[in-house]
Specification:
This protein has a five-stranded antiparallel sheet with strand order 4-3-2-1-5, with helices on one face. It has a five-stranded mixed sheet with strand order 10-9-6-11-12. Helix content is 40%, strand content 14%. The radius of gyration is 49 Å and the shape is elongated. With 674 residues, it is α+β, with helices and mostly antiparallel strands. Strand 19 and strand 20 (535-543) form a beta hairpin. The protein has 22 helices and 21 strands. It starts with 10 loop residues before the first strand and ends in an 8-residue tail after the last helix.
Length: 674
């Protein structure tokens, strides 16, 4: 008959009681050693099989038959050298006890005493081999069993072998003292007044003194004032978050107690790009007597810490500025066109995989989301109030304001407002842009990072490892994707599309207008288009029939490649010049003189007029000739010789005139002489 086979050290439960197999005993039966105070069992394989079929046996792993928790790793560096030696000795004893119990050893007095002697001799030999001083006496059998119980209860944790500190551990303060300390901390320390501990202790001493006066009158024992160190010890036991929350606010408590976190991990260039804005700590002159603090939009590669693109604008940041900076980041850069020098190198460009933005309104734009979708860029918005998510770009902003702009003319002086006036020297907008490009190409990309490599070296190493970063996209396609929609339909007038005080027209637009004019029901056809604030001289009109865009430039060639801000400046200057010319006193004098001349002429010539319609159909002569021969005012003829019209019938044939024309001539006023 087949039976249940066990191996030496196997652990099993019989009716809920655990046993360990210690091999085979007399008669080939298995010796089962109990874990707790029960007698040993000798069971044959057939008996074990019967118990297993009846559901009374459950097998367990032999390694955890005595433990409730797994072993853990600990750090003993903070323990003194003497205690460390004692702990190592106890752990040696406990490992030997584990082997002893796996072999079925009992925990009675005599077997443990003989085991302790054997373990002591083995430990002495090990200490001699390692050059350590061995203990003089072995561990007692009662201490061995006591430490082994702690070892089992902790799941084999080394910290269980540390001796508990001796001495009086309870508080020496009375109940009244503890109550007063708790009330003082709650009412005086945990308040928005933020009193120091010294002031709190003085108030506590005054309150206790006042209480002792009343207690002495009642014949009670006075309360001893706790020391300053005692009060500090009770305050240190408080939770730091609760202390800061009550003394300051929730936001400050969270900021001071939160765990430090970092930006998401990246492994190659363009895997993640961070975008953000900042207002430069400098005033620049726009050339029209206006001083502004420009806004800088940066795009930083998280892996190499290099600047992929930027956009400087005097206007407040928006999604359009992000798209302008993104266009610079995607396409190769021409330093000469940007206003730099030929020796400045800027090889960083490419299409980012992920763009990290914050939750500002300037980043929440349908145009930006649509552009990212068309270009295959994933937009990720950082958690609110967590600047560490974009630590690299925040660090660059600090370097710009504290290093680059520290000595430039027009720097913002918080405590010297007089330096903000027009008399103080300032950089022009173009000068500031050129200095910023020079800082990016010659200094920012050559400053070593924490790893010791510069952003230029990290970028080049990543390209060699992961491949070239080129996008393969045409520049016109990138410009089209990163343009904003018109958000409403504009009419195509006979001369073109009117937008931003400009007129856009070309041959393609004229042909498209003729194609869709029939479907507009007599009105001017309307279209949608895209445009960019970086170049108001160009729009992209959407062809609804072919589902494509085609470019249309402005008629004014001076508006080509002009930004929206510069275009507004130009329009403002035109309006100012027009207003100045119209308000000139000589112009007003000319207007009055002309008006006087016209009035005098009208008074002298009278008000009777020849109906123009009738004069065009006078028989015998064209209207241009008859107009010179008609005396519109018999009383005062024109300053030219009066010509009499011959009353004889005209020599030319007038039979082809319509009868209605004859009727019209008959209705001419009697004062007209033919």
């Amino acid at each position: 008959m087949a039976g249940l086979t066990l191996a030496n050290g196997d652990c099993l439960s019989i009716s809920g009681h655990r046993y360990t197999c210690a091999g085979k005993g007399p008669g080939g039966r298995y010796l089962l050693v109990p874990h707790k105070g029960r007698s040993q069992k000798y069971l044959a394989a057939e008996e074990l099989l019967d118990l297993s079929e009846s559901g009374k046996i459950e097998l367990h792993d032999a390694s955890d038959y005595y433990r409730e928790f797994p072993r853990t790793q600990v750090n003993l560096s903070s323990i003194s050298k003497d205690q460390h030696q004692e702990i190592m000795m106890r752990c040696f004893y406990m490992n030997e006890m584990d082997e002893y119990r796996c072999q079925g050893g009992k925990l009675s007095e005599k077997p443990i005493a003989s085991l302790v002697l054997r373990v002591h001799k083995k430990y002495v030999n090990q200490c001699k081999e390692l050059g350590q001083t061995p203990p003089e006496y072995p561990m007692s059998e009662s201490a061995c069993r006591r430490w082994y119980r702690k070892w089992q209860k902790s799941g084999g944790n080394v910290l269980s072998q540390i001796r508990n500190p001796s001495g009086n551990r309870h508080s020496k303060l009375s109940i009244e003292q503890r109550e007063i300390i708790a009330v003082v901390i709650d009412e005086l320390f945990l308040t928005n007044d933020r009193r120091p501990v010294t002031a709190v202790h003085e108030l506590m001493s005054a309150k206790i003194d006042l209480e002792n006066r009343s207690r002495l009158r009642d014949g009670l024992k006075p309360i001893k004032t706790p020391s300053y160190n005692t009060l500090c010890r009770h305050i240190r036991k408080l939770d730091l978050y609760e202390v800061l929350k009550n003394r300051y606010n929730n936001e400050y408590a969270y900021k001071m107690t939160r765990h430090q976190r970092c930006s998401p991990m990246v492994h190659k260039h363009l895997e993640q790009v961070q975008a953000d804005h900042t207002q430069a700590d400098i005033y620049v002159d726009l050339g029209v007597g206006v001083l502004v603090r420009p806004w800088i939009t940066l795009l930083i590669d998280s892996y190499s810490k290099s600047i992929l693109g930027f956009w400087i604008s005097p206007d407040s940041p928006s999604a359009q500025t992000v798209m302008d900076a993104l266009r610079m980041a995607i396409m190769p850069k021409n330093i000469i066109e940007l206003g730099g020098e030929p020796e400045w190198q800027w090889p960083m460009f490419g299409l980012p995989e992920e763009l990290i933005l914050d939750n500002g309104k300037d980043f929440l734009s349908l145009d930006l989301e649509q552009a990212a979708l068309e270009l295959g860029i994933s937009l990720t918005y950082s958690p609110p109030r967590q600047a560490f998510y974009k630590a690299q770009i925040e660090r660059h902003f600090g370097a710009i304001n504290k290093r680059l702009l520290a000595k430039l003319p027009g720097q913002v002086f918080k405590y010297e407002p007089e330096k903000h006036g027009l008399d103080y020297p300032h950089l022009t907008f173009d000068e500031f842009s050129k200095i910023f490009i020079q800082w990016v190409t010659t200094l920012a990309h050559r400053t070593p990072t924490k790893s010791g490599d510069t952003p230029m070296q990290l970028w080049q190493n990543s390209i060699q490892k992961n491949g070239f970063s080129g996008t393969g996209l045409e520049e016109d396609f990138v410009k089209l994707c990163l343009s904003k929609s018109s958000h409403k339909r504009f009419a195509i007038q006979p001369d073109g599309i009117h937008f931003n005080s400009l007129v856009y027209n070309n041959e393609w637009l004229s042909r498209y207008r003729n194609q869709i004019a029939s479907a507009s029901s007599g009105r001017s056809p309307t279209v949608e288009f895209k445009w960019s604030a970086a170049n108001v001289g160009l729009i992209w009109v959407f062809d609804e029939k072919n589902h494509s865009f085609f470019p249309v430039q402005a008629k004014d060639e001076m508006a080509h490649e002009r930004s929206l801000f510069n275009h507004k400046v130009v329009l403002r200057e035109r309006r100012n010049r027009k207003k100045a010319n119209l308000s000139d006193s000589s112009y007003h004098d000319a207007v009055l003189a002309l008006d006087k001349t016209v009035n005098d002429f009208a008074d002298n010539k009278g008000l009777n007029k020849l109906p123009a319609k009738a004069s065009r159909y006078i028989r015998g002569a064209p209207s241009s000739v008859l107009a010179n021969n008609i005396d519109t005012n018999p009383a005062q003829p024109l300053n030219m010789p009066k010509k009499q019209v011959n009353s004889d019938p005209p020599t030319q044939d007038v039979s082809n005139f319509d009868d209605d024309l004859d009727d019209a001539i008959d209705d001419i006023a009697d004062d007209i002489e033919l």
